[in-house]
Design a protein that fits this description.
This protein is mostly helical. The chain has one domain. 65% of the residues lie in helices and 2% in strands. It has 14 helices and two strands; from the N terminus they run H-H-H-H-H-E-E-H-H-H-H-H-H-H-H-H. It has a two-stranded antiparallel ribbon with strand order 1-2. A hairpin with a 7-residue loop joins strand 1 and strand 2. Helix 2 packs parallel to helix 9.
Length: 361
């Protein structure tokens, strides 16, 4: 909005020329999201606490989590507000990709909000996993159609899968790309949801991944950088740098209230929306496979659940003391801050590995 309002005046007011630069607007988006979080956070938390006077913890968690009873959830509303307000203020709203990823973020957030609401009003029972998956897939397929429609037809890039480390390989999935891209969004969404089990555990890796994809979006949308790095150029994706920066700012703002001991939990409202946002940006920038590297921590948590369920059904034995993986280490006696910080370190290492794919061709 600010870009459309102020940049045309740059001829008369020189400093307004800064609005032409994605880097400047990305910085503005990050700071704005952070400020919005700080301003709205306290009042929103008070309101959530008033609506959830008897907030309970999930039954499938270690006994130590009983101390968290009374902490309100649905704090993801704060993240959604900060990201949406900041993006709408600083991004070029003529860019179709911005609207597509923002639509995915808000839609997944609404699904999560409905699930959180059902859990609060129906004694821990949210919407069924099947209904949640169907709603997410519907949003994912629709958003993919939007993205493909916005993306210019160039060597079938719009429906192709780019393979990291190989500079020219494109796998054209054709109509199957719609299902694949939707699964990327849904998978990322649910992976972040599974990781969100300890104070501050999920939100920092989300910020780290969003920072990485801000870099990916910038270089993929810049013809000079993409040609130099031998990656596929997708015109217009640079504007998603602003969106990713807004996520980083909102995540840091939320961490202020979610740091141990948490004053609020993000709930499905936040985890589903943030995972969906990362998945949508990965689809637009043609870095779907790299998302599995950058978000490797989320993948690890998800795999731990899959392995646990499969092992128990096939053999009657559990591989981990409790899944997802962070609960296993809790059961082993690790303190919560130790688990959280070590998982942050793992997320940072994996993010650096993901960033290295920009140069390894």
């Amino acid at each position: 909005m600010l870009y459309l309002l102020l940049f045309p005046l740059a001829g008369d007011v020189g400093p307004l020329n800064l609005f032409r630069y994605i880097s400047f607007r990305s910085g503005g988006a990050l700071v704005t999201a952070l400020i919005v979080s700080f301003i709205l956070g306290p009042s929103l938390i008070r309101w959530l606490r008033s609506k959830q006077p008897n907030a309970t913890v999930r039954e499938d968690t270690p006994e130590t989590h009983l101390a968290k009873k009374g902490t309100p959830t649905m704090g993801g509303v704060l993240i959604l507000l900060a990201v949406s307000i900041s993006t709408l203020l600083w991004a070029d709203l003529r860019n179709g990709y911005v609207w597509a990823v923002l639509a995915v973020t808000v839609s997944f957030g609404l699904i999560g909000f409905y699930d959180d609401f059902q859990k609060l009003t129906k004694r821990g029972r949210g919407i069924t996993a099947r209904l949640k998956f169907l709603l997410q897939m519907l949003v994912g397929v629709s958003a993919t159609g939007w993205i493909v429609w916005v993306m210019p037809e160039r060597d079938a890039l719009s429906t192709s899968l780019a393979v990291p480390f190989l500079k020219s390989l494109l796998i054209d999935l054709g109509p199957l790309f719609f299902v694949f891209a939707a699964l990327v969004m849904v998978g990322a969404s649910n992976a972040v949801n599974l990781t969100d089990g300890l104070d501050g555990l999920a939100i920092v890796p989300v910020a780290i991944a969003a920072g990485c994809f801000a870099a990916f979006a910038y270089v993929v949308g810049n013809s000079v950088f993409s040609n130099y790095l031998l990656i596929h150029y997708v015109p217009g994706t640079g504007e998603l740098t602003v969106f990713c920066a807004a996520i980083v700012g909102a995540a840091l703002g939320f961490l202020w209230f979610n740091a141990p001991p948490a004053m609020v939990f993000m709930g499905d409202t936040g985890s589903l929306s943030m995972g969906g946002a990362l998945g949508a940006v990965a689809v637009v920038t043609k870095h779907e496979i790299v998302l599995a590297i950058v978000g490797g921590l989320f993948v690890l948590e998800t795999v731990s659940v899959i392995v646990q369920v499969a092992s128990f059904k096939l053999t009657g034995k559990r591989v981990f003391m409790m899944a997802p993986l962070h609960h296993h280490f809790e059961k082993k006696g690790w303190k919560e801050p130790t688990i959280v910080i070590r998982f942050w370190i793992i997320a940072m290492i994996l993010a650096l590995a993901g960033l290295s794919t920009l140069k390894l061709r």
